[in-house]
Design a protein that fits this description.
signal; ConA-like_dom_sf; 46% strand; mainly beta; 242 residues
């Protein structure tokens, strides 16, 4: 082999393996959360929610459940550990809901986020993002601290499918993208691990939207310390042209 061919082969090899040595979040160009693009849903009373519009968030709103770092733009969401489960329902999550609702057949849709789990609840499980519809959640991402992984839960009417979507870095960092396409596919990327799934049949009719979430799962004893807290360092919702 000539020297020029050897050099080209070496460059090609480095180009192929180089990105694999760098975590996916290291290659991102983070976009701080744009608070004005979302509506905040936060606990208000037993199994009730308070809605805070984006213009109020952009003006500097804060509460026990929502804080924004003015220097970095990072947003911290916290659940209410004092709210118990009632009749099988979990306490209200703290949610940033996108300002656009859409049908998956009409437009591609992506939500990309980077976050840290600041505080785990007692069961070590935190809902961190989802596609929501008027009929309920379509796809949810749940961080599992016991197993250091993120579980994707796909809801299809009366059935539910669970897959391991990716691992959680030791520093509790998670980067994820949830995407839907008019072709009928649902794509989930968690810390560089990609999963491509069919869109649930039950999601083909209702209007949908993205939610960035700090939410607990299952029953918990009301306690100040038994809550979840998540800081989103970047968050972007995008609807590219079909």
């Amino acid at each position: 082999m000539s020297l020029s061919r050897l050099v080209c082969a070496t460059c090609l090899t480095l180009a192929l393996v180089g990105p694999a040595l760098t975590p996916a979040w290291g290659m991102d160009t983070p976009m701080p959360p744009q608070a004005g693009s979302f509506t905040l849903q936060e606990p208000a009373a037993r199994l009730k929610l308070r809605l805070v519009p984006g213009n109020t968030l952009a003006a500097g709103y804060h509460s026990p459940f929502y804080q924004r770092n003015t220097a970095t733009g990072a947003i911290t969401l916290q659940t209410d550990g004092l709210q118990p489960s009632i009749r099988g329902q979990t306490a209200p999550a703290t949610v940033l809901r996108e300002g656009t609702a859409w049908y998956f057949q009409q437009t591609p849709a992506d939500m990309t986020a980077s976050l840290y789990i600041d505080v785990w609840p007692s069961d070590q499980r935190v809902i961190i993002g989802r596609i929501q519809s008027t009929h309920g959640p379509v796809a949810e991402l749940v961080a599992d601290g016991h197993h250091s992984q993120v579980i994707a839960i796909i809801h299809d009417g009366t059935s539910t499918r669970r897959i391991t979507a990716g691992t959680i870095y030791p520093d509790r960092h998670i980067s994820y993208t949830i995407s839907s396409r008019p072709s009928g596919t649902l794509q989930i990327v968690v810390n560089g691990t990609r999963s491509v799934l069919p869109m649930p049949v039950a999601a083909t009719a209702p209007v949908m939207w993205f939610e960035a979430v700090a939410g607990q799962t299952g029953w918990h004893m009301p306690c100040h310390g038994d809550m979840a807290r998540v800081t989103f360092t970047s968050l972007d919702v995008h609807h590219p042209a079909p």
